[in-house]
Amino acid sequence: MTYRFGKPHGLLLFSAVLLLFLSLPLGSASAAVVLLDPGHGGKDPGVKISGSLSEAAFTLEIAKNVEKRLKGGKNLKVVLTRSGDDDLSLDARLKAMEREKPDLFVSLHVNAGFDRKASGFEVYYLGFGGTPEAPADGGAIARDMVKNKVLNESNRFGQIVLKHLDPQFPRGNRNLRDAPMVVFQNPSTPAVLIEMGFTTNQEDRKRLQDPNFPKAIAEAIASAIEEFAGAPGGKP
Q1: What is the per-residue pLDDT for 30?
Q2: Half-sphere exposure (CA, 13 Å, Cβ side) for 161?
Q3: How far apart are CA 223 and CA 231, in angstroms?
Q4: Sheet containing strand 191-198, strands side by side
Q5: HEC secondary structure over the chain
Q6: Which stretches of the chain score pLDDT less than 50?
Q7: What is the per-residue pLDDT for 171?
């Protein structure tokens, strides 16, 4: 949608509408759409967790468990970018975001590092390090306001995820980090990427191979989504 401002009162009216939009909580008008993106898949298995378990399978199991946990909720609708061991390009994931127009995007991954002592979990979002658009006109101001709103919401959700995942990784909270990842390029969708443990760390790898661990992780992520959305079961 393109907005053109021919008269000063047009800018004032649009600004008032925009401020009202920015004040609305997630999912206030209808069910909020949460797009879960299990990393890798198909020909790209991701990092190896064990002889029979790949990152692609692990993240898909978590995504399905989150979907199951939140299914039936009146305020939330969960959609997966892939529901099987499918090849899914980065472009296809971005198109899924364009298609679904989610209120929240969550990418799921497992970490690996050169330092075998590195362990725990970390959450990424775009961060505020990008160059702000020069506020030359009302449209630029509006876009900058929307961008800051989305970044603040991404930051808020990231902090909530850290809190809920913390019990699953004792002393393993590596905090919220910012990075200019391609999956964060949609300027209107709060988005985070979660790295759940290091396969290169002995203790983490053992934890990741525990058959009960995916359900515990999914429960934590689902609770974080509920809290963020203010849905029943969340803890605002």
Answers
A1: 76
A2: 30
A3: 9
A4: 76-80, 32-38, 104-111, 191-198, 121-125, 173-178
A5: CCCCCCCHHHHHHHHHHHHHHHHCCCCCCCCEEEEEEECCECCECCCECCCCCEHHHHHHHHHHHHHHHHCCCCCEEEEECCCCCCCCCHHHHHHHHHHHCCCEEEEEEEECCCCCCCCCEEEEECCCCCCCCCCCCHHHHHHHHHHHHHHHHHHHHHHHHHHHHHHHCCCCEEEEEECCCHHHCCCCCCEEEEEEEECCCHHHHHHHCCCCHHHHHHHHHHHHHHHHHCCCCCCC
A6: 1-25, 27-28, 131-132, 233-236
A7: 85
pLDDT of residue 17: 39
Domains defined for the chain, CATH in brackets: 29-115+122-170+179-229 (3.40.630.40)
- With CA atoms as reference, report the closest residue to 46 among 30, 57, 36, 35: 57
For 156-179, the pLDDT digits (tens) are 999 999 999 999 998 889 999 999
pLDDT on residue 99: 95
Beta bridge partners of 37: 107
Residue corresponding to tokens 């939140």 = 70
Nearest Cα to Cα of residue 107 among 168, 55, 53, 51: 55
Instruction: Report CA 182 to chain centroid distance, whole Å.
Output: 13
CB contact at 8 A, 165 and 81: no
Amino acid found at 233: G
